[in-house]
Amino acid sequence: MFKEVSPPIAYQNLKDTKEAILIDCRTEKEWAIIGVPNLSELNKSLVKIELLREDQSVNPIFVEEVSKYAEANTPVYLICRSGARSASACQMLLNTGFVDVTNVAEGFEGNPDNQGNRATIDGWQFHDLPWHK
Hints:
- The protein is an alpha/beta fold.
- It contains four helices and seven strands; from the N terminus they run βαβαββαβαββ.
């Protein structure tokens, strides 16, 4: 079973654990239009690997791409828009031998509020963690 933490806890854990990495598994379009977590204050780089492509097909080499940045015991944190895709990515990694996998539960934009707006009730942006376009 993978772990789940809020964005502030994920950020603190990334800060405290030198070998920990953050993988954003959203699409290229989301990274470009919405923005991405900025880990420069932690002297780290965000790893961007699409789990689902624009056509909603699963990236067949997702695990292979993750393996370029992480070994089976590397602490890996995964983030997407709201935490759903990254939860699927966590399970996929666990099923292929990764052992320290954590989902950033609220995601980058968080869940929609009553008006359908994101980043207003939870998520990386809502918690005012570093990010950029």
